[in-house]
Fold this protein.
Amino acid sequence: MPPGFDAQHEARTALDTPLFAGLPGDIAVSFEFFPPKSDALSEQLWNVVQTLAPLEPRFVSVTYGAGGSTRDRTHATVSRIIAEAHLPAAAHLTCVDASKAEIREVAEAYWQSGVRHIVALRGDMGAPGVPFTPHPDGYASAAELVAGLNQIAPFEISVAAYPEVHPDAASAAADLDNLKRKLDAGASSAITQFFFEPEVFFRFRDRLAKAGIDAPVYPGILPVTNVAQARTFAKACGAVIPAWMDGLFDGLDQRPASRQLVAATVCAEFCRRLYAGGVRDFHFYTLNRAELSYAICHLLGLRPKELQS
């Protein structure tokens, strides 16, 4: 909880006044992007980066594809963000289809490009439900990857956390044990998989405290405009989409502007309820779009530095 946090006051404020009135902007944010697949999409992403940069994120991260042009575009995107946008940029790195030597090569190249933060993930095999199979000469888990990265360079390392339990985990307790192994191996923070109801995170936060895990765990926020797409994402990672969300987006397929407004309303209220529960750090899965994340940050009181005069 932040210093001086008063849960009863926050609850009264959330219920008795306009939800977003007078928020002081005392939040910290980070944004996740995925590597573009073409030069045109690269420029589109660059516009997104420039839109969000004035919010001074703690960091921005770029997801990772194992091998080939996707990996190269991740590297190029992260390097450009550091060199031209002057933002702290984290590169994702997974164990999938890579030997320890290949991961060392990638990690050393990141370090030489100025990357000081890695989001270390086991990764999935690509198709839903296909069991993870380690490379014969690779790392078998994210905890092993974290330990290996710490032997390469003094990276800051973030890992994944799962409020609703990873689909491969034997149990919620086993999933929490796995998170603890990753932190014990040298990770300094975790970013949660997205979720859609504040109580999911609050319960998870209680479980973390009970397990003695005190490292920062940042809630991952996915602003939803396409429920069908969100269901596909959720199925792969074990997240639950509330039934009421379908109804809110029903009939808006041919009304993109209205769908965007509904999406902003739903996600902003969700984040405001997290805020009322003491959350001050938010990690946005942007899907390479700026306006929804920017609008939600604005509603939570965050302003570009040049406007804070």
Q: What stands out?
A: The chain has one domain: 7-302.
